[in-house]
Specification:
By secondary structure, the protein is of the alpha/beta class. It has 4 helices and 9 strands, in the order βββαβαβββββαα.
Length: 187
């Protein structure tokens, strides 16, 4: 878990996840558009390259995420909510259903997009014909078990508390040196 802000940029024209019905193996399925699938693959490839250069932080507690989207042009102008959802999905852990069980396939930057508790400052910031991109800032938020309402976060807090119980080293007695000296004296 990271407790420091993290800033990074995903290059390329930001695209929403807009689902579209497609025929796959003679079955109609609701899938993201081919353009989104390509954008997602490019972004995750960029994250993998970044992962090789620096240690990517991992957030599993509440965060504020701010995204500034710079579009190539005004053509097919997207909605902000769709862009934010696509970005959250791209940088969140990737799961697949295997034998009716949710199985982690790849760990990304966020454990789950539900940990995003604030999108303050997120906006379509402008048009940049030569450098369309998404600038992302992730800030960890303070969490309090007394006021938290999300069951996922409450479970994570309790797990962390349990881990801390076992991670702490036993406190040494103020008489440890005296006792060790006595024991060594009689050896």
């Amino acid at each position: 878990m990271s407790d420091k802000p993290f800033e990074f940029v995903l290059l390329g024209q930001p695209i929403t996840k807009k689902n579209s019905a497609r025929l796959i193996r003679k079955q109609a399925r609701l899938l993201p558009s081919p353009q989104y699938m390509e954008y997602e693959a490019r972004c995750r490839n960029a994250l993998n390259i970044l992962r090789q250069r620096v240690k990517l932080p991992y957030f599993d507690m509440p965060v504020q995420m701010t995204c500034r989207y710079y579009l190539r042009d005004r053509k097919s102008y997207p909605d902000l909510i769709g862009l934010a959802q696509a970005t959250a999905d791209i940088i969140s852990d990737e799961y697949k259903s295997i034998n009716h069980k949710k199985t982690l396939m790849c760990r990304w930057i966020l454990s789950d997009d539900r940990i995003i508790k604030s999108w303050d400052g997120t906006k379509i910031a402008g048009i940049d014909k030569y450098n369309p991109r998404t600038e992302i800032i992730i800030m960890p938020l303070k969490v309090d078990l007394k006021t938290e309402t999300d069951p996922y976060i409450i479970r994570k807090i309790k797990e962390r508390q349990q881990e801390n119980l076992f991670d702490e080293k036993p406190k040494e007695s103020p008489y440890a040196d005296y006792i060790n000296n006595l024991l060594n004296k009689y050896d």
